[in-house]
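Memo to structure team: turn this sequence into structure tokens by end of day. - J.P.
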Amino acid sequence: MARIEIIKPVDQVTGRRRLLDEIKSGLDSVEFSDMRWIVAYAKAGPLQRLQSRFEAWRKRGNTIRAIFGVDQQGTSKEALELALGVCDEVYVTQERGITFHPKAYIFTGAQKARFYIGSNNLTVGGTETNFEAAILVEAALPADQAVFTEFDDLWSQLLPNVCPATRRLDQTLLNSLIAGGDVLDEATIRKVAKTHGKTGKSKKLKSGLKLKPPSPLPPTPQAAKAPPVKPAVGHKNATSISVPKAGGLAIEIVPHDNGEIFLSKMATNQNPGFFDFPYTGMTTPKKKGGKPYPQRVPDPIVNIQVYGANNALILKDEAFGLNTVFYEPNSEIRITASKLVPVVPAYSVLVMTPSPIDGTDYDMTVYRPDSPDYAAWEAVCNQTMPSGGSARARKFGWF
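Reply from structure team:
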């Protein structure tokens, strides 16, 4: 008899059980040889996090197949490009006036099949951080063949020979979908969502729910396929690591008495677009004859929140102009936020994400070491920066 389990909404947001981990488990298992997924929306994040497992899976002679919806601009160009690179077959299902909305993940082997049916899209939210629910059904073969056939039909009835709304995806069709505005790149999707207020996010404070952050992006997921970012001239600690575009940065910070906080030139090299780098403005020297340095102009507008023990909100500052300078002699990205100095201890974790609020560039949330969420966010920091002579090197990570 088939085994059934429920993955509950709170399981995922708290990290007790996440669909991404379930998919990793399936890809690691020798019991399965074929993976299929059917999703309404997809973004690059989960595919980037699964990249190394996809490669190992394919090396074992296993297959990957996928069907995507491309309605409401919910599936990104980057996700489809990555899928074309890792999947044996990729399809898109699209019917004008009807939204394609199923979500199913199917693992099949000689003696077992595993199905996940639920609300989870192939996005970071859908696989890690949203309130989502799914049913896991595991069928033994051939004993549960009838159950397997019912779930297998989810896939087979959508294939082009049965469903005229489905087409095999190749680069030509993808180019056509992009040209027609059905598929956008992720930067444009975020921009459109921000303009129309469709992100579903707000300035609400944290609840008491203990949340787990998304897993960090691997430091070198596509270094062989994408040209590395060239480091700034004279930066002795520069890195040639290439990382995909990320939704946010987590970084340990050490506020200085003068109000300055160093970010990371290493991180900037990896994702210059996140910081709008290189900067086009120049500082005004305080002393006559002083040297100006590159400055981000205008100052990015940020919302700042600092959390401490028991998730207490220690500081909140909205629409703050964040002075941001590239101090060339030491190749340092410096921001000035004097209000943080008295309330933010060394090695607190700053989480920066593009803000969904129109007119605001970033949301900046600081988790102090006494915050209950500190350890989870520190775990996202999976890259170590040069210590610069400090006893403890700082870390950062993309998510």
